[in-house]
Structure formats: structure tokens, C-alpha cells
Amino acid sequence: MFYSFLRGIIRVIVYVINGRPTYLHRDELPDGPYILVGPHRTWFDPIYFALGASPRQFSFMAKEELFKNPILRWILRHANAFPVNRDHPGPSVIKTPVRTLRQGDLSLIIFPSGSRHSSELKGGAAVIAKMAKVPLIPTVYQGPLTFKRLFSRQHITVAYGQPITIDRKLKLDEAGQAQVEAQMQAAFNQLDQEIDPNFHYVDVSGEKHHEHPNA
């Protein structure tokens, strides 16, 4: 109930600020639970990922420091967030989303790189998908990367890719993880090229720069 209310409020706010985004292939999203995976390019890309996949509701990870504030903790929990210790992640990082996905009511949003300042993919999404028996849906965001640019009404496009199913026989050792990561990266590249063949991503924080491999 609260999630639907919050989503409605956010939808109006982002429309007023930036206009109507373009969503590619959202009609092809699965009916059952799944994991949206994508490169993390700005703090608001998960908002657009979730809005485009409406009416499905999502769970997501949030750093545990945010849960120390009682008001913010209440909002996050009612928005289907769960806390994660980024420095010392425990078993709950896997068990909590797997349990949520198996229940069938919620899907999950994960950024395999774990940070807006890293392009290195990590294997948690594949492990969760295999254990929960749900597909990974590659997703990319192209548009403004800062709040200031968001207000400039630079157009936003989100593209959803074809499901990546983790074979139950696949061992998620180093080689298995690398196989899934290669599939995800290839899907991200393909979606980026579909939106804009000349696309390249630059981390506007100035910490690092990441460019499209085909650019």
C-alpha cells in the first residue's frame, strides 16, 4: 500500500521535473518475479528502473547507515528496502533477497558493480538468481547524471533486455561467474547501442571515467 502510494508521488515529481521518459521493451518483462540488473550511473536510475516496470513492485538493498534514523528506517522498510553492511556483508545479503523473490510478490533491483564509481561486475546477482530460480533482466539508463541536469529536462531513456536464465547445473565458481558477467555486460552494451550508437558513459563525480567498450 505504502509502496504504491510512494510510487505515485514519485511518478508525478519526476514528470514535473524532467517530463515523460522513454521505456523500451517494458511490455516484454516477465509476469513473475525477476532481478533487474544494470550499470549504476546515477543515484536516481533505480527510481526510473522501477517506475518503468510498474505495476510490479521491487525490493532493494540500502546501506545500513540509512536505517539508523527512525523516520527514514520506517520509510525504507515500507518501501521494501533491507539494510546491508557494505564493508562486512553477511549471509543475509543473499538470504533476504532470495526469500523475498521466492515469495513471488516482489522483484529485485541490483547493481552488480555495487557502486556508481566502479564498472567491475560482481557475482551476487547471479547467486541470488540461481537460488531463487528467477531470471536476470539487463537494464540500462541513459539521461542526466546529476540533479542539476535532471532539471534541464535532458531526456531519459530506460531499456530492458532479454532475460538471462542461470542454468541450475552451472557452478558459480570463478569461471561460472565470469560467464554470467560476460552475458550481462554484452546485454548492457547492446541496449546502450540500441538507444544511442554513439553513447559513452563518464562518471561525473570525477573519481573515475567509464566508457562504452565499443565507443
From TrEMBL:
Top-level lineage group: Bacteria
GO BP: any one term: phosphatidic acid biosynthetic process
UniProt keywords, alphabetically: Acyltransferase, Transferase
Residue span, Phospholipid/glycerol acyltransferase domain: 34-144
Membrane-spanning residues: none
GO molecular function annotation: 1-acylglycerol-3-phosphate O-acyltransferase activity
Oxidoreductase found in the keyword field: no
InterPro entries per record: Plipid/glycerol_acylTrfase (IPR002123)
Pfam family, one: Acyltransferase
Protein name: 1-acyl-sn-glycerol-3-phosphate acyltransferase
